[in-house]
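Mn2+/Fe2+ transporter: structure tokens wanted.
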Amino acid sequence: MELQKETIQSNESFIQKIWGNLKVYGPGIIMILTMMGAGDLITASVSGANYGYNLMWLLVLSLLIRFVICNIMGRFQIYNNEGMTILEGYARLHKFFPFFFGIASLFIGHLIVAQMIKGSGIALNWMFGFGSDFIWSVIVVLVSLLIMGRNVYKKLEWVMKGLLAILTVSFIGLAVYSKPDVVGILKGTVGFGLPDDTGAYSVILVGVSLVGAVAGSLTNLIYPYFLQDKGWIKPMHKRIQRNDLLFGFIAAIVLTLAIWIIGAEILRPNNIQVETIDDISLALAIYMGELGSWIFYLGVFAILYSSVIGTAIGYAKVITDCYYKVTNKVLTKEQKIEGDSKFKWISLFLLISPVIWSVPGSTGFVALTLFTNALNIVALPAIAVGLLIISNQKKYLGKHTNNWFENIMLVGTTILAIWGSYQLLISFFS
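Answer:
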């Protein structure tokens, strides 16, 4: 009886500890949900539907790359002895970096938000059953405008945590119901091969899109700004920053794997090609009825909408910071990017302009997502090479420079990104 009592108390203590950490955590959760969005939903489901678990090793590699890059950026933000932003570190290498990142962020940020708004509109239209995809996309934009404003970070943190709860229940529940092939997952994780083309999209496009969506590109640059918003900018914050980021990546692994399992265990056996979101929903309806579709669309909305505000705000900060670095104008430490008029106009542009991709007759959601994710990888070499240099400079970081593993990962990432960009061009022109 006493043993049982001690076990219950131990479990309660464990749950309380998790809940206590969740209340403190923030930047890592926001970063992960901002980066996931349409990219993980589509590439993971398409990969599972077309190739089973054969590309699982790319998922593991991509998540590892992204964790290393984000953790190095977080460490640079916390330990550099001049209080620099990550963009300032890049700018001190060469003005090419902020110039390239600024232009690329405006273009890529617009397309990423377009995916999220378009997909959110599709999900809400299905769930409520009236109106049109376009009307619901406009509503998504209007609601996002209401959330933005003063103290946006605090509001964003709580919205993200709520959406993470919805995602966890929705996709993990569907994955468990799908009865995953554990042996197949393990084989795919250590397979290191590219299967033959078997679906509507080439394996090269799907693979490069997976690396672009998960390993990430310009979205990685957003993370240090979330750390600033949270106030984690001193060496004393390093431990909680790493734990917060690790928690976010564990959530990303679980959720992406859950989406992949749905593709491999339900879509693939029924020879269903993912060309629209409805294709996934219809497959789930075969096994679970309308309830399965409802749970799926609830998760779709959560994973897509979680990226709308985070991307618009994060990319606007990157672009504004790039402007100051290119023009040699100074944003003093007393000033904040959020108070700058350029930031406000850029964030509004990134939030409102993408609605044009939701107009009836525009590019399909799946095609738009795969193209944007694959395009992401083009910026990865510049991010990796620049980060490799600035994160090894002892004059800024002292003893907190990269270890050998991190350097190998950055070099390997550069080679992988260059190869992926080349393959993407060959695939596009052929």
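The domain at 35-190+199-429 is CATH 1.20.1740.10 (Amino acid/polyamine transporter I). Residues 290-327 form the longest helix (38 residues).

Cheers.
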